[in-house]
Every structure is written in C-alpha cells, then in structure tokens.
C-alpha cells in the first residue's frame, strides 16, 4: 500500500478561484519528498486536502489506502501528521510532555502506553531531557522539534511539514535535518529551501498553476535551467 495517492484532484474555492487542476501523485512508504513551487501554485490547497481540511471537489485522495472523505476523517487525521510553519500554532500546554501527550490522550491512550509513546516521540526529536519545560522557554528550533514530536506520537503514516527549515539558525537547521533523515516515516515537505530539499529529499514534485509540472529526482529537477 502507498502512503499517499492523489488522483485527478481539482479544487475551486467558493469565490471561484480554481487552485488545483487535476493533480496526480503517488508517494510510497518511507519516501521523503519535497513539494516545491511558486507562491499561489496550490501547495497549501493540496496539503489541506491530505487531512481533509478541504475535501475533493473532484478526484480523490487516499492515505494508506483509505479514501479521505467525511466518514474517514478521524482515521485520516491520525494518519496524516501536519507540522505547521509556526510551532506556536501547535503548542499550547504547560509542559512539553503535556503537549506531546495531548493527541494520543485524546484518542484514549493512557497509562504506561501513553508514557511509552510520549518518551519515544521526544527521544526521536532529541527533546526527552526537556519534557518538563514549558514550551515557551525553549528556542524556536526546539519548539519546532517538539511540534514534530506532537505529530510523531500519533504514529502517522505520513508526516507533512510546511517550510520546516524556516526561521532556523544553521545549527538548528542541521539538527532538524538529521532528525528528519533518521525517521522511518514517509515525509512530504513543502519548502522554498532548495538546499534543504536537495539534502533531505531524493524526490521532488514541482507544483505550478495547480498542476504537477515536474516529478523526479531532486538533483535533476533542480539542475534544470
Ligand atoms: P501556495 O500554497 O502554493 O502559495 P495556495 O494553495 O495558497 O498556493 O493558493 C493557490 C491559489 O488559490 C492561489 O491563486 C490563491 O490565491 C488561491 N486561494 C488560496 N486560498 C484561497 C481562499 N481561501 N479563497 C480563494 N482563493 C484562495
Ligand atoms: P503559503 O505561502 O504558506 O502557501 P499563502 O501566502 O499562499 O501561504 O496563503 C496564506 C493564507 O491565505 C492561506 O490560508 C490561504 O488559504 C489564504 N489565501 C491565499 N490566497 C487567498 C485568496 N486569494 N483569497 C483568500 N485567501 C487566500
């Protein structure tokens, strides 16, 4: 089963703006893929279809074989982990541990299983030693890592990151790259940071004017004039 399949996805906003014109793409398990493209290309609109914030006007989206539709949203939102550009949109609890525990606790996970999952997620982003801190005492780069942990703890099929390298200093940028490389999860990252795409993603998609204009090895796409 592929992590993600998008077929003939078209979408127009209520005001009539056609943002997607028949997008087709498949992402296999364990791939790390960059989604590139100019402003207004439809990247945000596409991402909003992956976890059902928007539902297909035309076409379909499948995550791990399950179609995104009103009846599957609960399952889909667990399987698609969205990491927003601003970690402060994702962190709102008194401590890092509480923020990471929030999602699974909401799904009814508790006790030792909850503890195990929280510890595992914090370990994966190198933040286990900061579990008792308030998120707002952490650096921006650390907050972004905690935001990644709040999503990993849900054991998603696919991790979708919006501009993961934005606002990071060189050290934080490197740390996050290492973390993303070490994960055994499918990753789709929306980015304008071509060096980051080159470093982390074997494959890139270029979205332009609401269609996939290119899909292939990042190295060759970015070498194109
Ligand atoms: P990107 O994320 O690549 O910058 P978007 O998905 O935000 O692109 O936008 C794609 C197109 O849809 C653009 O023409 C944009 O102006 C339009 N658009 C985005 N959101 C809305 C909205 N809420 N209502 C109307 N048009 C929108
Ligand atoms: P990004 O650069 O992260 O893709 P955008 O700057 O394209 O984001 O859009 C930021 C927000 O504004 C999004 O929520 C998008 O839906 C909304 N938006 C973009 N274009 C329009 C538009 N023409 N009308 C209404 N909302 C829009």
UniProtKB/TrEMBL annotation:
GO molecular function, one term: ATPase-coupled transmembrane transporter activity
Domain ABC transporter: 4-225
GO CC annotation terms, alphabetical: ATP-binding cassette (ABC) transporter complex
Protein family according to the UniProt entry: Belongs to the ABC transporter superfamily.
Database matches in PROSITE patterns: ABC_TRANSPORTER_1 (PS00211), ABC_TRANSPORTER_2 (PS50893)
GO biological process: cobalt ion transport
Membrane topology according to the record: Peripheral membrane protein
InterPro entries: AAA+_ATPase (IPR003593), ABC_transporter-like_ATP-bd (IPR003439), ABC_transporter-like_CS (IPR017871), ABC_transpr_CbiO/EcfA_su (IPR015856), Co_trans_ATP-bd (IPR005876), ECF_ABC_transporter_ATP-bd (IPR050095), P-loop_NTPase (IPR027417)
Function per UniProt: Probably part of an ABC transporter complex. Responsible for energy coupling to the transport system. Part of an ABC transporter complex. Responsible for energy coupling to the transport system.
KW Translocase (keyword) present: yes
Protein's name in the database: ABC transporter ATP-binding protein
Main location: membrane
Record localization: Cell membrane
SMART domains xref list: AAA (SM00382)
Keyword annotations of the record: ATP-binding, Cell membrane, Membrane, Nucleotide-binding, Translocase, Transport
One of the Pfam families matching this protein, by short name: ABC_tran
């Amino acid at each position: 089963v592929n992590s993600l399949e998008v077929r003939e996805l078209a979408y127009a906003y209520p005001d009539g703006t056609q943002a997607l014109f028949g997008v087709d793409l498949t992402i296999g398990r364990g791939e790390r893929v960059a989604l590139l493209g100019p402003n207004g290309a439809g990247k945000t609109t596409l991402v909003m279809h992956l976890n059902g914030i928007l539902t297909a006007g035309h076409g379909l989206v499948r995550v791990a074989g399950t179609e995104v539709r009103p009846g599957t949203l609960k399952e889909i939102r667990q399987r698609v982990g969205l990491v927003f550009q601003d970690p402060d949109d994702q962190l709102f609890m008194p401590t890092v541990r509480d923020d990471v525990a929030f999602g699974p606790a909401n799904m009814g996970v508790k006790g030792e299983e909850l503890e195990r999952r929280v510890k595992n997620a914090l370990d994966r982003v190198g933040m286990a030693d900061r579990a008792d801190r308030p998120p707002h005492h952490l650096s921006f780069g650390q907050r972004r890592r905690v935001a990644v942990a709040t999503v990993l703890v849900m054991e998603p099929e696919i991790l979708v990151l919006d501009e993961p390298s934005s606002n990071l200093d060189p050290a934080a940028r490197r740390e996050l790259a290492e973390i993303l490389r070490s994960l055994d999860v499918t990753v789709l990252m929306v980015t304008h940071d071509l060096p980051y795409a080159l470093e982390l993603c074997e494959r890139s998609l270029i979205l332009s004017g609401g269609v996939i204009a290119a899909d292939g090895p990042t190295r060759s796409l970015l070498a194109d004039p």
